[in-house]
Amino acid sequence: MKAKQKSNESLQRLRRRIRAASELVMNIFFFLCGILAIGCVALISVYMILSGIPAIREIGLGEFLLGKVWASTASEPKFGILPFILTSIYGTVGATLIGVPIGLMTAVFLAKIAPRRLADKIRPAVDLLAGIPSVVYGLIGVSVLVPFIAAVFDLPKGTSLFAAILVLSVMILPSIISVSETALSAVPPEYEEASLALGATQIETIFKVSIPAAKSGIAAGVVLGIGRAIGEAMAVMMVAGNVANMPSLFGSVTFLTTAISKEMSYSSGLQRQALFSIALVLFLFIMLINVLLNILLKKNAKGGR
Amino acid sequence: MKKLISLGLVLTFAAAMLVGCGGSDSSTAGGSSAAGNSSAAGLSGTVGTNGSTSMESVIGGLSEAFMGSNSGVTVSYDPTGSGTGIQAVIDGTTDIGLSSRALKDEEKAEGLVETTVALDGIAIIVNKDNPVENLTLEQIAGLATGEIANWSEVGGNDAEVVMEGREAGSGTRDGFESIVGVEDVCKYANESTSTGAVIANVSSNVNAIGYASLSAVENDETVKAVTVDGVAPSEETVLDGSYKIQRPFVFVTKDGTALSEAAQAFFDFATSADANDIIRGAGAVPVAE
């Protein structure tokens, strides 16, 4: 009897030990998964900096960032990326100016105005918009939008900064819409009910109560959209013309992303190193946007509470 | 339960795909090594080639075929540019120099020997609805640099010229610009990263002009290759030299310096008629008979 009890006890102890061990193993596994993400970011950062610095050093930081001429294979090569930087900024700002109002209004419609059945039909369409590969956006852009722009504005060709802005503004819609809608839906109904009870109309309530209450979420959506716009290469490459001109609305332009992908395949020597330096600049831009996003979110979280 | 089942399915599919890939990988590896062994001629070593970036696809095709039948040989290729390639032969740092232009007299005086392996013909293409049929070299240069901005100046419609080109570093761009004499001064409206994209852009824009390697447009009905100084581009007119927009792809070696056995075998293969289809496939015009 006693012996049996004893063996039972030891069996239980063993079980407990196995459970503890498996807990530990799983914990380590999860920890490793977490580390993997950090590791990737660290690895990419270090690699970008190491491979991007040499060319900047050789060309000179001022000439690299502020030079207006990019002629990487000329007999006297020039590596000025100001046209790319400005094009990326203009393109992103333009896409934001068009995309944010449309995206925000769509989110308001989905969250506050549309009947549930209609909203349930629009929402999957928006999600699908996010899932369309960028090369498809580019393809439609080059076969429909580009000839359309050429015809409407009576231009010899339609590939331009303007075409890129239009394509980008559609591409950033899904992230703006879905994040803003979530934020708008999360606004406590009491706020809106109080506003309505005080005699405000529904539209007044939306613009004066709901949107301000959801502004941190909306800002997050906008910054997410900006991130997508500035990092997009494929679709832009197909509609922007890809000549290293200083940006003009209907001129052929090159973005930071397309400057890299365009010349990578045949590049060599300093030209290739300079492409890594462009990637480093692009990387810093994205970092900056992320930092901005974090600051924005923290500020709003403090102000809201 | 449903989730578990679907997860199981996904895992099964993933596993099946991995197994499938692994299987095909190993089988191709086995196949190629078997082929190499059966036809090994006993050659071994490395063949160094160095020079013109424009010759990448030709050298790529040739070395792939050569290494396929001589498993012991590795053909390396440094795309450094014609000038560097020629200098490398003088310095003795490479076996075969690659140049996409004929040697200058002072280079020949250094004891260098040129052997043309192929000719690179570049067609000037316009939209099918463009009435222009013929252009002179000067007109082409003017169109490329923007000096001729309207098609009416060369007998076409009253419309703005849209110059289509390739990205910096492309061999076709380098070829076009160096032959026409417009290096680094072209005013492009669009830069594309492939010959196909240039052809597509020209075929969709009535006012566009572009360039593409001859082989890419020879059987292409979507665009029109103009005659240059009255000569239509074709393999024959490139070979007899009457079509002007062409340049030689040259192997540069040093007189009196024997190539290694492997390098000589590669040289002989590249200049033999056996290589003609490979050269044609790479977009150039073969010269061996």
What this model shows, in words?
The complex is a heterodimer of chains A (305) and B (289). A two-stranded antiparallel ribbon of chain A has the order 1-2. In chain A, a hairpin with a 6-residue loop joins strand 1 and strand 2. Helix content of chain A is 80%, strand content 1%. In chain A, helix 3 packs parallel to helix 7 (173-185) and helix 5 (134-152) crosses helix 6. Chain A has 2 domains: 2-59; 81-304, MetI-like (MetI-like fold). Chain A has 13 helices and 2 strands, in the order H-H-E-E-H-H-H-H-H-H-H-H-H-H-H. With 305 residues, chain A is mainly alpha-helical. Chain B contains 11 helices and 12 strands. Chain B has helices at 2-38, 56-69, 82-91, 105-109, 137-145, 171-180, 195-204, 214-217, 235-239, 261-270, 276-281; strands at 45-51, 73-79, 96-99, 112-127, 134-135, 162-166, 190-192, 208-213, 223-225, 227-228, 246-254, 285-286. In chain B, the strands form 2 sheets. In chain B, strands 1, 2, 3, 4, 6, 7, 8, 9, 11 and 12 form a 10-stranded mixed sheet that branches. In chain B, strands 5-10 form a two-stranded parallel ribbon. Chain A binds chain B through residues 71-75, 147, 150, 156-157, 159, 237, 241-243, 252, 254, 261-263, 265-269, 271, and chain B through 53, 56, 79-80, 159-162, 167-171, 174, 183-184, 188-193, 204-205, 207-208.
